[in-house]
Amino acid sequence: MRIMRKLAELAANAKFRIKLIVSYFLLVSFIILILGFAYYQISAGNMLSNVRESLGNVVLNNNQLLDEKLQNIRDKSEVLPIDNDLYQMITGADPADNESLMKADRRITQSLFKYFGGDESIYASFILTPEYTFGNMYRMFVTPDGFFNSALYRKATMGQGDLVWLPTYPFAESLGEPDMTNLSFEYSRLVSAVKELNLTYIDDNGNFHTLPRAMKRPVLMVNLTPDYIGRLFAEYARQSEFRNLSYGIVDGTGTIVVHSDEKRIAEREPPSWLGEAINRKQGSFQKVIDGREMLISFGSMESTGWISYIEIPVEDALYDLKALRLYSILFLAVMLMVSILLAYLMSIFITKPIIRIKKAMKMMERGNFHIHIPEKGRDELGQLTRMFNTMNGRIQTLIEENYASRLREKEAELMALNLQLNPHFLYNTLTTMYWIAVENNQHEMSRIMLSLAEMLQTSTRNKNETWPLRTDLDWLDKYIYIMSSRFENLFSVRMDVEEGLLDMEVPKLFLQPFVENAIIHGFAEMEHGGEIVIKGWADDGMVLFSVQDNGSGISREHIDKLKSGQVRSTGMSNVEKRIQLLYGPRYGTEIYSSEGKGTSIRIRIGRQPGSQDTQDRTEIQ
């Protein structure tokens, strides 16, 4: 938090040009980084998609080639059970006669060569009976006792006449030959296909013969090397540009049949993703293996049901993006340098008018108001310059007017001193006339004289713009008495003002012009029955007054002309201006009237003169 406060303080105290450069730099940097990141992600996604598709095609093609060869072996194995010669050779061999077995071996070996000898991928093939192993023993030797006691034989019987593929196994151990374990073989591990042969025979008479029930069914065993199974994958790995590519073939139990690392062949630890691959049969996914994200493409072999796969680290698949990353960094550096230069030039362009205004303000601070900034452009800065020039002109005018106003005030004070006796002379004269009227029993005249004298005395004694509402209403009451004496029986006046408002300060004589207008204009065509209602009340932070009459009213057109100034009303205009000067522009007067239905004047003033509402102020933060 302390670091953040320090940074905020530095930012607040930095010059505007520095702020502009930094903000532009950060904005451009943010945009470039976002675009670079988005471009990198899209490129990485496309590249991974291409690699995934390429690996998937390799797995699919290799599986198809392997399936074709293995299916060929299966097809040939399907012919053996109905081979008449093979049936006669197996049934005709005498287990107790070695010469008979040797003759049968030569003929069966030739028959096996006829079926499987042309295929170089087949390492060795045999037909085994409990008494003898028929086939070429040149590459490997399989004893009947060891085979018929091995898991290979059990798998063959479980196949019930179908060809069963068995994953890589050490044949010395699997065939029950512990003495051969320490011997060296061309291939220590083999892949085998076994099939129990249910031999049949059809004689010349069309009779169908099968092997005797007491006779154990012979078993076909075809052996392939793991190198042959994984040869296509090994060739792709050698030619591939991926440095850490690995491949493998796994059977349904998780036993590794082929692997790029020969040490892992025959392991029984299935990959964690094997179950998902068996369910999907074909596809690819990304998995984290030993803390490393790997891209794996896999496919199921139709002939064996085994899963073949190729996996590479994702980072290897995206290796070519390193150059793109480098180019992106260089592009970012160049763009940032260009952005700094542009930000600097732009800051000069933007701050130059502000600097001019700053210099002009310093000159104004020293008292020099006769300055003018050249106005260029119509943008916000141009408008600011024009507003400054206008403001400076107004300040200069106000200074001159204020100076002239003070001179006039001095002159007025001198005139007031010279004419100080005049109001007292008028007041004394009215008082004398009052006593003369009293002596001559002119009571109405005496009261008018007294009211006029008191009005004059109240007005001359109070030099302020405001006085208490109580004083204003008392003055208005005397004015109404004089006017009612002048217009006898023409109107009546009713006042309804809240008691709590009587001591508040109000503009002097702010109600009199409206009462006078009601009497002079509103009741001009009436002989009697005029009524004036004066009300005053507080409402929502302001004080409202109304002067309502039942006179002839004012037309809408005439009201509009009054508001626009086309028709002058000196009294009403004077009150409006004084209220707004004392309380602010949101206060003033409103006229509600229609012809023949009377007029209502609404007056809004504040609680205290000279303190305007916060709504009328504009503060610059």
Count of distinct strands: 19
Mean pLDDT: 80
Number of helices: 18
* Shape annotation: rod-shaped
**Order of strands, widest sheet:** 2-1-7-4-3
Low-confidence stretches: 414-422, 613-621
Could you estimate the helical fraction of the residues in percent? Answer: 40-55%
The count of domains is: 3
N-to-C CA distance: 25 Å
Major sheet description: 5 strands, antiparallel
Share of residues in strands: 15-25%
What oligomerization state is this entry in? single chain
Question: Radius of gyration, Cα only, in angstroms?
Answer: 59 Å
Helix and strand content put the structural class at: alpha+beta
Subcellular location: Cell membrane
Membrane topology: Multi-pass membrane protein
Pfam family, one: HATPase_c
Organism: Paenibacillus prosopidis
What is the secondary structure topology, with strand pairs?
Elements: H1 2-13, H2 16-79, H3 84-92, H4 98-117, E1 122-128, E2 133-135, H5 144-148, H6 151-159, E3 164-170, H7 171-174, E4 189-196, E5 200-202, E6 208-210, E7 219-224, H8 226-239, E8 246-250, E9 256-259, H9 274-280, E10 282-289, E11 292-300, E12 307-313, H10 314-317, H11 321-365, H12 380-418, H13 421-439, H14 443-461, E13 466-468, H15 469-486, E14 491-497, E15 505-507, H16 512-522, E16 530-539, E17 542-549, H17 556-564, H18 570-583, E18 588-593, E19 599-605
Parallel strand pairs: 14-16
Antiparallel strand pairs: 1-2, 1-7, 3-4, 4-7, 5-6, 8-9, 8-12, 10-11, 11-12, 13-15, 16-17, 17-19, 18-19
Helix pairs in contact: 2-8, 2-11, 3-4, 11-12, 13-14, 14-15
